[in-house]
Amino acid sequence: MQRRRRLHERPCFSDPRGKLYGLRVTAFFTCVCAGGDSGFGLSEGRDGLRLLPQSSGLLSECHRRQRQVEFSATNDVYRNFSEMTLQELVHQAASIYSDKIAVCFDECNNQPPVYYTYKTVVNAASELSNFLQLHCDFQGIREVGLYCHPGINLPSWILGILQVPAAYAPIDPDSPPALSTHFMKKCNLSYILVEKQQINKFKSSFEIFLNYDTLKEHSDLVLFRLHWKNVEGSLMLNNRKQKYEKEEMTNSTNSGNSNEEKSEEHMDVRQKHCLAYVLHTSGTTGIPKIVRVPHVCIVPNIQHFRVLFEITQEDVLFLASPLTFDPSVVELFVALSSGACLLIVPTSVKVLPSKLAAVLFSHHRVTILQATPTLLRRFGSQLIKSTVLSASTSLRVLALGGEAFPSLTVLKSWRGVDNKTQIFNVYGITEVSSWATFYRIPEKFLNSTLKCELPVPLGFPLLGTVVEVRDTNGFTIQEGHGQVFLGGRNRVCFLDDEMTVPLGIMRATGDLVMVKDGEMFFLGRKDSQIKRHGKRLNIELVQQVAEELQQVDSCAVTWYNQEKLILFMVSKNDLVKEYIFKELQKHLPSHAIPDEILLIDSLPFTSHGKIDVSELNKIYLNDLNLKSECKLNGKEELWEKLQYLWKSILNHSEDPLKVPDESLFLNSGGDSLKSIRLLNEIEKLVGTSVPGLLEIILSSPILEIYNHVLQTVFPDEDLVFSKNYAVKRKFSDINQEETSGKSLRQKSVMTLSCDNELTAFTAVSRGSQILSPNTKFLTKLGLCSSAHSYDLISQTNIQNVESLNPPALIGTSKDPSCVAEVSEEGTYVLAAKMELHVRWRSDTGKCVDASPLVVIPAVDKSSATVYIGSHSHRMMAVDLYSGKVKWEQILGDRIESSACVSKCGNFIVVGCYNGLVYALKSNSGEKYWMFPTEDAVKSSAAMDPTTGLIYIGSHDQHAYALDIYKKKCVWKLKCGGTVFSSPCLSLIPHHLYVATLGGHLLAINPATGNRVWEHSCGKPLFSSPRCCLQYVCIGCVDGNLLCFTHFGEQVWQFSTSEPIFSSPCTSASEQEIFFCSHDCFIYCCDVEGHLQWKFETTSQVYATPFAFRYQEGSSEMLLAAASTDGKLWILESKSGRLQSVSELPGEVFSSPVVWESMLIIGCRNNYVYCLDLLGGYQI
């Protein structure tokens, strides 16, 4: 292949509708743009392109001949622009529209969007090109990896790589590392550009797979040189590799029976200017294939769509596809080669339908949208009709592809009255990137009021593309069923290790079609292959991966109604669905994860010994009917289906016995997330919302849940009560051994009061809360004026208390590395400047979900103590420095409540599942007083330093004020929902904030128990409120962080994409708010609700983060956080940059607490850990 001519040697194509080729091309595209009305398609032979009739009777023979002639005149033009490169198309547009906006990035976080002009994009690209040319020494194929999330710089980065010249190879940071590693290794990728914000994720994801050198930084990118290790054993792909490669070589060659003659000419991948980009197929059709795409293959797509969609500089195109999905190339370069604007938003926004619709069609007035039907369906039919396809929509063109096209009936139901959006069906495969055919839905079909069951054809070949349909013998057919083959003289890609490929090669698609009257209609995938979420998926691979799991005896996968992927499993032992989902996510891309998993006793077989798919579908249909049937015939059916849902969500599906009436959800294996699932399933079952149901699920037996739902659905029915369980836990239900039958107002065996025997101390608890209630002590140290929220002293203020801070513990850093699991010796190898070593660990007997309380006496700080409880019913006091257990006390039930210290320092207060609030002597663990509530106490207590009162919530829906010295309840208040989280006390103004699972946030007068104000958030509040001088903040299950003034006025809300169970934490200056979400991110906002940074972890984050000081004499702060997969993250609090990451050998729901150079945290492997922070970090 001859070396490509440079731009100035080319004819000018400044306007796709300009004088140079306007008449000829416009004539042709006028013909084809009529879509279904034209009845024509394109093909290409040795004599060039030709227009082929697709159906008879629609156009006269005269018109056909005329349009064939019109299109034949475009051949020379096609050959000219097909030799252009993608970057040359952009430079051409930039020379005309240099000051026009080329790219808009909207982070959708209440900040103004960022804009780049064409001049800015091109200049930034040139700078990157020069950088790469200076530092990259290419040997062989010229490719550069790009590891980043979508952002304002993305087009410049891609353009910069192309200008080197080199092909860009996108690596998705959210893709399974094993799959990405396979791609990089098979490409033999030598260089990769990594976005600076993703550096730590890159290192932690790939450290075990590859070696690398850090070469240089350029702007927001870092260039790495890759060195390869043997990774094949980790990819779960080798066993199938040879089989699939052999099949693909057979299917992808020219058929001897093809109507096209074989070409002697070849294309060579090693040519300097040949390649544009490199992708990989999903890996779900067998072994993932590498697809190297030349400029001459993709440029015809770009040019054709520019004219087909009539793109102008006034258009706004949305980058809907991820970079690893080749339609993104069309979106990028159709926009940037036309003077149009490309809109980019974060990936997280794309899964929020309402927010995305507002951004696209209200804020930015998008005119061109290319998407999969799945993406469109996410909006919901009502939003599609009212916004996306309304009469007033900005959307001119909607192109749907990547999956089976919706039926015309569905399509018409989506369109608003008088909507004028042009709708296209586009079809293609990655191996002949990107699109191959198009079909515009005729207006007459869209506007018809008659019901239309006609299937939508695949339509006409795009410029330069040849489409053939072959039967099972490889012969091209004109009618009947067959497989689609795609190609064209220059529509050629290189697969895997191909160095040269014959021009005009035809690739098998695996798509089966019916050809009727010259039109192709999609039937489905060959060999159990489907298209899901825009990507190809072989359901047999899902089955193979699942069968490799040790717990699975046998399994089968079905594609139910071409809508849902269902995995049926027979387990060898008790199988937990959540575990299986987690394992599948390690080895499969997101679009291959099943929608549902059904546990069954045995797989059904046909008489031939094969799996009976039809019988499996019947099993799922029965399951579906049971779960989703909204109309209930009576209370008996409600009870039956409630039992089914209970067992299904708790993974007790195979238990044939009835669920006992007294069964409690949490005691049966439930948790907060499962309770929300049960709530959603029940409301789906009954077809209406059930107020107050969540707290009933969390606190009451199944019979009371049934009664509660019964009152909503069948209000006239009599309630059913169990003889063995009261509706609410009564005082007499408390274990007599616990209370010893003594009065609540009994005299103490110790004479203690709030006014004498005071112990000066500092108490440190989750969320960077430091309590020093002895005012004289504070005044002496000059700190009293700094505390306002129940005398909480911020971490940086503690630096003034020299007696509390030993010299910083400085350690030697090792080379940067990734997450390392804890060893038996207790050493962690960490990612950056610091290391963590296990100082001690203490076995509590069962899971530790509570967070530690650290109490440091002022007189003898060496006797500092960690107080923590566990599921084993044990409350323990452990020496902070040595890990020696000072005492342990067995309480009446599980402990998830975190401990609170009394004002005098002589007592520890903690709640228990048995409904009691315990006051234990801090020096011995002896039970001093027990106060009974009417239900479980998971809430952690708060202490008022002005009065010594203890405030705590209960699942009985009450908040309590307790005087532990007088052993009495001062007041209690019904809060309108279960109080799961911990109260928060503010001294200025003097308010107590309490949140409920009923969605209520209350401000209470701490002295009287009267409501000051109340706000309904609409969704459950598991998060604890956190107050500062100006505001009070709280996280909500709907994914929002809410901020209020102390007078109840909502100031702002910040949205994440998943529920927030984590409680907020403020910086010492109270100018930053840190919190975490189940979307796996740690967030930092300022006090106005503006995002400062966010950091993606590897799992959901339930725990509350902890801010602490960098080192002695420094103002720099760090942030400690824990994700549920056991990883501990240390970040810079100002920037969110990762400083260190390590992993505990179990799940973590406990929140970290840091004191001096030690981090204390509980783990679900039954241990509480104390780790030394080495590297100059301390409070």
TrEMBL record:
<keyword id="KW-0812">Transmembrane</keyword>
<feature type="domain" description="Carrier">
    <location>
        <begin position="636"/>
        <end position="713"/>
    </location>
</feature>
<dbReference type="InterPro" id="IPR000873">
    <property type="entry name" value="AMP-dep_synth/lig_dom"/>
</dbReference>
<dbReference type="InterPro" id="IPR020845">
    <property type="entry name" value="AMP-binding_CS"/>
</dbReference>
<dbReference type="GO" id="GO:0043041">
    <property type="term" value="P:amino acid activation for nonribosomal peptide biosynthetic process"/>
</dbReference>
<dbReference type="InterPro" id="IPR052091">
    <property type="entry name" value="Beta-ala_Activ/Resist"/>
</dbReference>
<dbReference type="GO" id="GO:0005524">
    <property type="term" value="F:ATP binding"/>
</dbReference>
<keyword id="KW-0067">ATP-binding</keyword>
<dbReference type="Pfam" id="PF00501">
    <property type="entry name" value="AMP-binding"/>
</dbReference>
<keyword id="KW-0596">Phosphopantetheine</keyword>
<comment type="similarity">
    <text>Belongs to the ATP-dependent AMP-binding enzyme family.</text>
</comment>
<dbReference type="Pfam" id="PF13570">
    <property type="entry name" value="Beta-prop_ACSF4"/>
</dbReference>
<dbReference type="InterPro" id="IPR045851">
    <property type="entry name" value="AMP-bd_C_sf"/>
</dbReference>
<dbReference type="InterPro" id="IPR042099">
    <property type="entry name" value="ANL_N_sf"/>
</dbReference>
<dbReference type="GO" id="GO:0006631">
    <property type="term" value="P:fatty acid metabolic process"/>
</dbReference>
<dbReference type="InterPro" id="IPR036736">
    <property type="entry name" value="ACP-like_sf"/>
</dbReference>
<feature type="region of interest" description="Disordered">
    <location>
        <begin position="242"/>
        <end position="265"/>
    </location>
</feature>
<dbReference type="InterPro" id="IPR048005">
    <property type="entry name" value="AASDH_AMP"/>
</dbReference>
<keyword id="KW-0472">Membrane</keyword>
<dbReference type="Pfam" id="PF00550">
    <property type="entry name" value="PP-binding"/>
</dbReference>
<feature type="transmembrane region" description="Helical">
    <location>
        <begin position="21"/>
        <end position="42"/>
    </location>
</feature>
<keyword id="KW-0276">Fatty acid metabolism</keyword>
<dbReference type="InterPro" id="IPR002372">
    <property type="entry name" value="PQQ_rpt_dom"/>
</dbReference>
<keyword id="KW-1133">Transmembrane helix</keyword>
<dbReference type="InterPro" id="IPR009081">
    <property type="entry name" value="PP-bd_ACP"/>
</dbReference>
<dbReference type="GO" id="GO:0019482">
    <property type="term" value="P:beta-alanine metabolic process"/>
</dbReference>
<dbReference type="InterPro" id="IPR018391">
    <property type="entry name" value="PQQ_b-propeller_rpt"/>
</dbReference>
<dbReference type="InterPro" id="IPR011047">
    <property type="entry name" value="Quinoprotein_ADH-like_sf"/>
</dbReference>
<dbReference type="GO" id="GO:0016874">
    <property type="term" value="F:ligase activity"/>
</dbReference>
<keyword id="KW-0436">Ligase</keyword>
<keyword id="KW-0597">Phosphoprotein</keyword>
<keyword id="KW-0443">Lipid metabolism</keyword>
<keyword id="KW-0547">Nucleotide-binding</keyword>
<dbReference type="InterPro" id="IPR015943">
    <property type="entry name" value="WD40/YVTN_repeat-like_dom_sf"/>
</dbReference>
<protein>
    <recommendedName>
        <fullName>Beta-alanine-activating enzyme</fullName>
    </recommendedName>
</protein>
